[in-house]
């Protein structure tokens, strides 16, 4: 985990610029859709540079965690610029969350579990801190069911692993189920490579 965090510390200076085109064309509207579903006390796992912060409902309380100091510095700057008093940002490992069981009404992750070194461990931690009956909102890219669509993902995979530790071909929907979540709804946003997955804890 430490090595991946170092990659993101280095990359944090360029991260928003690197994703600027895809963010403006697609990801921002995906975020708006996903974050509109957040309620109550919210944990955002992997808050990054705070790209989700503008899209949260005004009446929620958000704790955002990330393992990269560099990314959190960007997120804190964005939080201040937006004047958000209902958001708190903490340095923390998604695989070892420092919260009590059943602490949150909503858990959010957007494009995170492609990067967590042990995704099942991280997802089980998210499950642990979610209240029974709570909602988990996953906006994630993952391996497609189409062999053809997977060709560019496999070509990109070694580059992204070297740059940020991100896997382009994780089977995140299956991992969510393995971690104990009950999947309520799946919406394919960009073919089935980018999916909005709504899950609950029974």
From TrEMBL:
Entry keyword Methyltransferase: yes
Limits of the Methyltransferase type domain: 43-138
Any GO molecular function: S-adenosylmethionine-dependent methyltransferase activity
Positions in coiled-coil regions: none
Transcription listed as a keyword: no
Name of one Pfam family that matches: Methyltransf_11
Highest taxon listed in the record's lineage: Archaea
BP-aspect Gene Ontology terms: methylation
Cross-referenced CDD domains: AdoMet_MTases
Keywords: Methyltransferase, Transferase, Ubiquinone
Protein name: Ubiquinone/menaquinone biosynthesis methyltransferase
